[in-house]
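Email to the structure team, subject: Ribosomal RNA small subunit methyltransferase I model.

Hi all, the expression group asked for a predicted structure before they design truncation constructs. Nothing fancy, just the tokens so they can compare against earlier work. One-line instruction: predict Ribosomal RNA small subunit methyltransferase I, return tokens.
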Amino acid sequence: MNHIGTLYVVATPIGNLQDISLRALEVLRSVDAIAAEDTRHSAGLLTHFAIQKKLLAVHQHNEQAAAESLLQRLLAGESIALVSDAGTPAISDPGAVVVQQARQAGVRVVPIPGASAVVTALSAAGIASGGFLFHGFLPASHAQRCRQLEALRGLEATLVFYEAPHRILECVADLQAVLGDERHLILARELTKTFETIHRCRLDEALAWLKADSNQQRGEFVLLVEPPAPREAEAVDENARRVLNLLLAELPLKQAVKLAADISGAKKNALYELALTLKAST
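Reply from the structure team: attached below.
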């Protein structure tokens, strides 16, 4: 009886071939076959490192059928490496269906970490505040793209997108229209390649920067939209503060805030924030 094989999920370079790991090379040399998003593209990588292996096509148009075929090979005892054209498989690239079916069938899945465009861009962006949300590619249509951006607009996190060169101008225009002028955008283009560019500007400056040099519209993009700047607390003048203090001594917080706003004319939200601070300090 054959032992079940192993599925290796292998990250490959996103541009510079020297970024491949020693472990990835060892796995690619040892497996029975390599499942690739584009067999011609992966053939170039393998030739560069003098690796000769059978290549099997697994792309977005055949992934379901290919996953079933790969699963039969794995269950028969073959070990297979799964690669995409660049970076880590199944991250905005084919591969997730293959991994899911393999895991459900009890096949061992081993990740071989390496290059990832989103992590590469974030590492050089210098964004220190908060977390990030990786969204991947936005929809191609203007209306659907704007709807998704609208749903993300209120998140206080760096928003990370992938975008293709032929849609970069319209995508950036929609980012500005939905997310506003003041948030900062980092355009990371052709990462690890000869013409790598990492440019930071306000959203209302990005479109003009791209249009000023058509070369900056070429290549694959990672777009990082920084979180909105924290809103400064509204100031409460001394008179409103005195009124609020007197009312808080006699009334519940919400009632005191409402009356203080009515009496002083100060903003209720600012008074409410101040009331919470005053309560916490007593």
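The chain has a mean pLDDT of 93. Residues 6-115 form a domain with the Cobalt-precorrin-4 Transmethylase; domain 1 fold (CATH 3.40.1010.10). Ping us if the truncation boundaries need rechecking.
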